[in-house]
Amino acid sequence: MDRENRMLEARLLQAQGHTQLEIAELLGVCERTVRNYMKQMPRARKRPKRPSKLDPFKQVILDQLEKNPSHNGELIFERITGMGYAGKKTVMKEFVAKERRRIEATAVQRFETEPGLQAQVDWKEFGKQVVDGKDTKLYAFVMVLGYSRKPFVCFTTSMDQATLKSSQDRLRHLEGVIA
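and the corresponding structure tokens:
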């Protein structure tokens, strides 16, 4: 009888009302051993680590995900099945999902600039609004400064180059007032 089974048997005998001496005689061990069995908490046995059917194909999957993290899982499954994978699709999908999370969690290094050297500019259409009594398309000129990450928004009725220049001039004027 192995140690775990003896410990279990000792606990069962104790629950039935047997003394430690009686348990020791029934199990063929000394009384001190029974006392030690009673002190220790029973624990689940660790399962042996068995190789997965997916193991030989994991590097192929990782290479594909490094190139394109959003690569279709069905296509990956078809590819490794053609290479000899005989496992289940769910096992492969769980591995792919875990690796996608790991890839997406990698930190993105911020691009830092000196003050006044870089900004990101974009236009956003806000549909039609009544301006000076008539329906006019309204746009937002948005500029985010690279150093401070502070946004500047200016609403306009045109997205032409003259409006762009005017919006940039307003920003420079505001920077002088704020600074």
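(Above: one complete record from the training split.) The longest helix spans residues 161-178.
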